[in-house]
Design brief:
about 400 residues; alpha+beta; Rossmann fold; six-stranded antiparallel β-sheet; about 25% helix; disordered C terminus
């Protein structure tokens, strides 16, 4: 049904429907289901536009985004992969031994036969360094997931962190607009070049107001809800489990809320649907790891996978048992190689996360490979098979032993 003036529409005729009035740029100008025609949520991208992550990649390469094709990207990534391999082998004591007997890589097959990097290898970062220690801006310590072994220690340079900040600025512009109020509900404290600091610095130049709750109320859903009602953020950034825990205290949502960015843990479809139905807002998913300076991939409103920061990381998917690379679309363990990273390069790093890659065109217009859903954490079975466990809720999905 088409109409000229929403304010003259007989809303009673379409009770229960969500009415979108869309402008020429694809943004929803108004939406309503109530008799007083009050907007249920602020305008969102109804018609997905090209992910700004693609535009940022094209800008860095100095080419029109129309020429940003998968084969163009692969040529650049292959150059970076070879440079990363040679730099690491020549400057890092660990990689000199790790790649002993491998003088060079000249094909994708050579690359896929390189040995893997594990979490245990990160316990002695000094051996992995490809520069002097004076280049290290931050040394982050993480307990190895699921073990009692030595903690991982990640060395990050100023350049590494600045490139992450730039990724956040491009990626978050998918959801944020000038004048928005972003409430960051992630754990941790504000420290120079830390995660909260990088996010804040990335969005403030966009005209975004950043809101940070008192750490004491982050684990109290009732108090956190009261803070959200009082501060009126337009976008929330937090873990899916935390956001889902707010639902009983805000079953009909928050005033002025237009979007959610879920991060730090996998976003289950059931959680995503529950939040969208209750709070009537756009929900996008982000995936990242501290090991790669936090940010890696961000979903766009087309909801067809997460767009990768492909000039900073190369992503593969392998069989966790045979370590063979899997075809695109097949579920396996995610490997990450950092690109353009000199201080502590990671080459074919086993994340322990289970997911898959997508190469079909995205609804936003992007033709580049994307990361599909992160399904859970890898768990090896005594029978030689493997499964993924969706922590913290403990859902198990089995896979047969590899042949």
């Amino acid at each position: 049904m088409a109409f000229q003036d929403i304010l003259s529409l007989d809303i009673a005729r379409v009770r229960g429907c969500c009415i979108h009035v869309v402008g020429e740029n694809g943004r929803c100008l108004h939406n309503s289901t109530s008799l007083d025609t009050l907007s249920l949520y602020r305008s969102i991208l109804v018609m997905p536009q090209l992910s700004p992550i693609d535009q940022a990649i094209a800008d860095e390469l100095g080419i029109p985004v129309s020429r940003l094709l998968p084969e163009t990207l692969w040529r650049i990534q292959w150059q970076y992969l070879r440079e990363t391999f040679h730099h690491a082998k020549q400057t890092s004591a660990f990689y000199a031994k790790h790649f002993q007997g491998i003088p060079q890589i000249s094909s994708r097959k050579d690359w896929e036969n390189l040995p893997l990097l594990t979490a245990n290898d990160l316990s002695q970062p000094e051996a992995l360094l490809g520069t002097s220690q004076s280049a290290v801006e931050r040394m982050v310590t993480l307990q190895t997931s699921g073990t009692t072994g030595s903690p991982k220690r990640i060395a990050l340079s100023t350049t590494d962190l600045q490139r992450t900040q730039a990724f956040f600025a491009h990626g978050l512009s998918t959801l944020l607009r000038k004048g928005d109020r972003l409430a960051i509900l992630l754990p941790g404290s504000m420290r120079p070049m830390g995660l909260l600091d990088l996010i804040t610095k990335s969005v403030e130049p966009l005209g975004i107001n950043v809101l940070l709750p008192n750490p004491a109320i982050r684990t109290n859903p009732q108090q956190l809800c009261a803070w959200i009602f009082a501060t009126k953020p337009t976008v929330l950034l937090g873990a899916p489990s935390l956001l889902q825990g707010l639902l009983p205290y805000a079953p009909t949502g928050f005033p002025h809320l237009s979007g959610i960015l879920a991060s730090t843990e996998p976003l289950e479809e059931a959680c995503k649907v529950a939040l969208a139905q209750a709070w009537h807002c756009e929900i996008l998913n982000h995936y990242g790891l501290t090991e790669i300076a936090y940010g890696l991939a961000l979903e766009c409103p087309a909801h067809q996978g997460m767009h990768l920061r492909s000039l900073d990381c190369y992503v593969e998917c392998i069989d966790p048992i045979t370590h063979q690379c899997l075809p695109k679309g097949c579920v396996g363990e995610i490997l990450i190689t950092t690109l353009q990273r000199k201080t502590m390069p990671l080459i074919r790093y086993r994340t322990g996360d289970i997911g898959f890659l997508r190469t079909d065109p995205c609804g936003c217009g992007s033709l580049l490979p994307r990361l599909g859903a992160i399904l859970g954490r890898l768990s090896l079975l005594p029978n030689g098979g493997w499964q993924w466990i969706h922590k913290p809720k403990g859902h198990h999905f089995g896979m047969p032993p590899s042949s």
